[in-house]
Amino acid sequence: MSSSAALTRYQKIYQVVQQIPAGKVATYGQVAELAGLLGQARQVGYALYRLAPNSEIPWHRVINAKGQVSQSPCRKGTDALQRELLEGEGIGFNRAEQIDLKTYLWQPASSTLKAPGVKGIPETISQQIKRQDRENNQ
DNA sequence: CAGATGACAAGAT
DNA sequence: AATCTTGCCATCT
Prior knowledge:
Shape: globular
Number of helices: 6
Structural class: mainly alpha
Number of domains: 1
Oligomer: single chain
CATH superfamily: Winged helix-like DNA-binding domain superfamily/Winged helix DNA-binding domain
CATH class: Mainly Alpha
Radius of gyration: 15 Å
Distance between the termini: 46 Å
Order of helices and strands: HEHHEHHH
CATH topology: Arc Repressor Mutant, subunit A
């Protein structure tokens, strides 16, 4: 820890991830929005990359928008571990090693946050903003 | 101090 | 449908 900043973006991200309940998952983009980093899903991945595998933070409940677990080239096996942890919480994977977001996505109460790009679930806030931005631009 | 880099996501081609 | 491009920022050399 060489950072002296009071509350960095990464720390906000960690706080959000800690709120994900067992048996549910959140996408990187969703965590970013909840952390006040709209549209910066990448930062979430960067932040989680910094975590130790034995961290108190439930990093394994964060998956990508396709419903698949991501993996780090530096940490072989973390994807398998992540899958085991999730299955241990009752989360099911289909044949394509994907999680059904419609069933398992964390949907915080009193929030309009939804899953990105999932059929049957409305677009995320960042998607709404981008779409409106696009329409204005035309 | 400048540049490289790292668990993503969405639009464009 | 698959691949490429861009946006974003904290850390480490």
